[in-house]
């Protein structure tokens, strides 16, 4: 087994110090983008590999979280584009097992109502976020969920800060419109 050079050891130490502390935030953002824990883990793993591979291009002293989030976002977009060109696939075993397990069950309606209500609210908010156009959703997630500054998001997405402000404003308004309609239907909003 070959010994690591002093530069390779230094690169590993710097990488662990700068990038690894952001793993949880990376996973949370990846989960919001992919809506799937397994895909989120794969996206984070792919991001870490790319970040280490290109760590020489990272400028020490700059914002490591913004740098690695940009890699994560670009990896997600590239994967999304690749998947969108592939035909839809269905797992036969999953479908057949679903039909085999369908059966009538009796459930206490009050517990079921409560469970459905809680899940419906969470699902509706998630669906509203997911329905946002990609550019708006990314900015809303980075600014409002991950709490990056406008400047950091502009750097990550490589767009002017004014574009970030505009996308955030429009994204929030789209969410507000979707959720206001939902709230009115459910009786949460009164005139």
From TrEMBL:
Ranges for domain RNA polymerase sigma factor 70 region 4 type come to 126-173
Q: Cite a single GO BP annotation.
A: DNA-templated transcription initiation
Ranges for domain RNA polymerase sigma-70 region? 22-85
Q: Which InterPro entries match?
A: RNA_pol_sigma-70-like, RNA_pol_sigma-70_dom, RNA_pol_sigma70_r2, RNA_pol_sigma70_r4_t2, RNA_pol_sigma_r2, RNA_pol_sigma_r3/r4-like, WH-like_DNA-bd_sf
GO terms, molecular function: DNA binding; sigma factor activity
Return the Gene3D superfamilies for the record: 1.10.1740.10, Winged helix-like DNA-binding domain superfamily/Winged helix DNA-binding domain
Keywords noted in UniProt? Sigma factor, Transcription, Transcription regulation
Q: Which residues form a coiled coil?
A: none
Quote any Pfam family the record assigns: Sigma70_r2
Question: What CDD domains does its record include?
Answer: Sigma70_r4
Which NCBIfam families would you find in this protein's record?
A: sigma70-ECF
Describe the family membership recorded for this protein in Swiss-Prot or TrEMBL. Answer: Belongs to the sigma-70 factor family. ECF subfamily.
Q: What is this protein called?
A: Sigma-70 family RNA polymerase sigma factor
Taxonomic classification: Bacteria, Pseudomonadati, Balneolota, Balneolia, Balneolales
């Amino acid at each position: 087994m070959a010994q690591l050079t002093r530069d390779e050891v230094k690169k590993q130490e710097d990488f662990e110090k700068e990038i690894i502390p952001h793993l949880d935030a990376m996973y949370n953002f990846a989960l919001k983008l992919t809506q799937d824990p397994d895909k989120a883990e794969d996206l984070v793993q792919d991001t870490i590999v790319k970040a280490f591979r290109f760590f020489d291009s990272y400028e020490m002293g700059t914002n490591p979280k913004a740098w690695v989030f940009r890699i994560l976002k670009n990896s997600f977009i590239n994967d999304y584009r690749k998947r969108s060109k592939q035909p839809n696939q269905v797992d036969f075993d999953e479908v057949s097992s679903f039909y085999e397990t369908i059966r009538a069950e009796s459930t206490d309606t009050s517990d079921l109502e409560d469970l459905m209500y809680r899940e419906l609210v969470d699902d509706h908010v998630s669906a509203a976020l997911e329905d946002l156009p990609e550019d708006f959703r990314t900015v809303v997630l980075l600014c409002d969920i991950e709490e990056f500054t406008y400047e950091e998001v502009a750097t990550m997405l490589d767009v002017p800060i004014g574009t970030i402000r505009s996308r955030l404003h429009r994204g929030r308004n789209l969410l507000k419109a979707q959720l206001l309609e939902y709230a009115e239907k459910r009786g949460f909003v009164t005139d």
